[in-house]
Amino acid sequence: MTILYLMIMLIVVTKLVSSMAEGRTRQIHRPGTPPAFPPPGAGYPMQQGQNHPGQYGMVPPPYGYMRTPYGLPTDVPLSDASRSAIDSDITRFGTELRELDFDVVGFELSDEARADYTKALDAYENAKLSLRGARSDSEATHITRLLEDGRYSMARVRARVQGKPLPERRPPCFFDPAHGPSVSDVQWAPPGGVMRPVPACAVDAARIELGADPQIRMVNDGRGPVPYWEDRHHAAWARGYYGGWMNDPSMRRMTHGALMIGGFSLLMGMLDD
């Protein structure tokens, strides 16, 4: 009798626990509520109020990210191409800082000029430090954004000590972001492409005006030298320089239309349709 009673109690408890678990599952996955882990191949949850307020939706992860088995985005490892490009740019930036030292010798620096000088020095040191531990594409993007900001700070220092107006904040030179901020848009066409305005530094703008070719940054994509915008392994490196400028009129005119500049739109991976 005791054994029968225990068996009945065990069956009752088992059904009760099973019922509670089933109810909890229904609550978690009720309509309009995101599951704990999106299925493989899905996007990632939209922010509240994005496109469909209060509803659960999926958007594709940004370029430079891959998915975990649960469909959640995780950062892509830093490519050797981006690391090498960043290392080269940091070395070049250090040389430019030393040249700036000579340019300002004998000038009395104002507080504003000193502040800009400090920003440039900090950008250099932070970029070097960040590269040592960089392991992912997002870190590469962060570093080149530091360098882009640092070069603008250097341009401000030169303008201040020479008594000139502060330079306009513009996108980096399209032909090589390490050339520094662009000074104007110039009409240029890649081989087989259409003429369109692109942001250019003073040197490249002058070369094009004289009928010479701009100094395009060439990289090796495994098949030979190509412009950097045709090598997707330089995407994270380029995104730090240009990512914040995608809504700038000069950049949008350059990258939108029937024909794009080489693979630049694909390389950036962040333009609107």
Describe this structure in words.
The structure is a single chain. By secondary structure, this protein is mostly helical. 47% of the residues lie in helices and 10% in strands. Strands 1-2 form a two-stranded antiparallel ribbon. The protein has a two-stranded antiparallel ribbon with strand order 3-4. Strand 5 and strand 6 form a beta hairpin. Mean pLDDT is 76; it is low at 21-74.
Topology diagram in text:
Layout: H1 2-28, E1 44-45, E2 58-59, E3 65-67, E4 73-75, H2 80-104, H3 111-133, H4 137-161, E5 184-188, E6 196-200, H5 202-209, E7 218-220, E8 225-227, H6 235-242, H7 249-255, H8 264-268
Antiparallel strand pairs: 1-2, 3-4, 5-6, 7-8
Helix pairs in contact: 2-3, 2-4, 2-6, 3-4, 4-6
User: In this structure, how is the largest beta sheet organized?
Assistant: 2 strands, antiparallel
Strand percent estimate = 5-15%
In the sheet with the most strands, the strands line up as: 1-2
SSE arrangement, N to C: HEEEEHHHEEHEEHHH
Q: Point out poorly predicted stretches.
A: 21-74
Structural shape: globular
In DSSP terms, counting alpha (H) and pi (I) runs of 4 or more, how many helices? Answer: 8
Going by helix content, strand content and strand pairing, the class is mainly alpha
Cα gyration radius (Å): 27 Å
What is the β-strand count? 8
If you average the pLDDT, what whole number results?
Answer: 76
Distance from first to last alpha carbon = 75 Å
Percentage of residues assigned to helices: 40-55%
